[in-house]
Design a protein that fits this description.
The protein is an all-alpha fold and 76 residues long. It has a single domain, classed as 434 Repressor (Amino-terminal Domain), CATH 1.10.260.40. The protein is built from five helices and no strands. The protein starts with a helix and ends with a helix.
Length: 76
Amino acid sequence: MTAVDKQFGGKVRALREARGWSQEQLAGRAELNRSYMGEIERTTAMPSLTTAAKLARALDLPLSHLIASCEESAAK
């Protein structure tokens, strides 16, 4: 697992929490299973590019922004 991989779940969690959403709410917006959403946030599952795009869309972000924010966190 790369540094960016390790940052992805935490970044999704932080963005979700900043919006005041539950995992269930984000999962619903992204058309994902809530338990899978938890696995992503805990980094026990790594989403496909398609799933990452669904999450970015649900968070009203460009996918490139979501990935870049993971890269920035990993570089620190």
